[in-house]
Amino acid sequence: MAKVSVQSLANSTSTRTETAVWRDYLELTKPKVVAMLLLTAMVGMCLAVPALPTAKVVILGLLGIGMQSAAAAVFNHVIDRRIDRQMQRTIHRPVAKGRVSTMQALAFGVTLMVVGFALLWALNSLVAWLTFASLIGYALVYTVWLKHATPQNIVIGGLAGAMPPLLGWVAVTGSLDPHALLLVMLVFTWTPPHFWALAIHRQKDYAKAGVPMLPVTHGVEFTKTMILLYTMLLIVVGFLPWLAGMSGEIYLVGSFALNLGFAWYAWRLKFADEKGLAWQTFKYSIWHIFGLFVALLADHAWYALA
């Protein structure tokens, strides 16, 4: 009876270990971030054609973009492992804690990168190279250099994270289009106030890790001003898809309401701040970009079916 109990305990422990390793590798890919990127890529795909893109394009495109985005996230974990160990928000990440070794993470990231590139190449070479360039932009240019070089790191580096709508568009058409760039502008303008709200909330963490985020180098009040100004700019940029004729009234109303909500949070953060408001602003910004692209998708579907 004792032998059975010991064996059962061993099997249980083994199962827990395997599950933990699987979860660690999943965490390396930043699945929530990748899911949001794939939503924006999907919207780019749908807006590229009058009706619906083919199943082949959607499947290969989303898998390829998703894998390349996940690879960039894995490389970010590896490169930032020293910083991650100093920050409360990231101290428990798999590479920082040693649950996944640097070599294991690199092998995982390279595999995702290569397979993702091959899937996109099966669609067209332009989307494959653009997605790879975005990976390099985030994993190397931003993480290795910009993040430590300037407090404008997230403004410049945000371009890599804004690319998925364009990548989705190019996956379908094989060519660049000015309308796709408007979608990039939406995400590019949204990124700084989104991330700076988090940076205010985690200011001490970034200061401790020596990362020159805007609240660390220029102070919290200046950062609040910049968040407010960028949300004002976001309202203006939000009109562009409608003004360009690529979306209709459903998007117009939805985006205006969402952008006003973001601006309201930014206004309160600047002039009526209270404990936890920066974190609330950050959380709202996530729902904001989700809602913005759902509005684009719903608007396109409505007029495509009409």
Automatic annotation (TrEMBL):
Reactions accelerated catalytically: heme b + (2E,6E)-farnesyl diphosphate + H2O = Fe(II)-heme o + diphosphate
Keywords tagged on the record: Cell membrane, Heme biosynthesis, Membrane, Transferase, Transmembrane, Transmembrane helix
Keyword Transferase: yes
Gene3D superfamilies (alphabetical): UbiA prenyltransferase
Membrane topology reported for the UniProt record: Multi-pass membrane protein
Membrane listed as a keyword: yes
Membrane-spanning parts: 33-52, 58-79, 100-121, 127-146, 153-172, 178-199, 227-244, 250-267, 287-305
Pathways per UniProt: Porphyrin-containing compound metabolism; heme O biosynthesis; heme O from protoheme: step 1/1
Compartments, as annotated in UniProt: Cell membrane
Chief location of this protein within or outside the cell: membrane
Top-level division of the source organism's lineage: Bacteria
EC code(s) of this entry: 2.5.1.141
Function: Converts heme B (protoheme IX) to heme O by substitution of the vinyl group on carbon 2 of heme B porphyrin ring with a hydroxyethyl farnesyl side group.
Family the entry assigns: Belongs to the UbiA prenyltransferase family. Protoheme IX farnesyltransferase subfamily.
Further comment found in the protein's record: Carbon 2 of the heme B porphyrin ring is defined according to the Fischer nomenclature.
Record's protein name: Protoheme IX farnesyltransferase
Organism: Enterovibrio gelatinilyticus
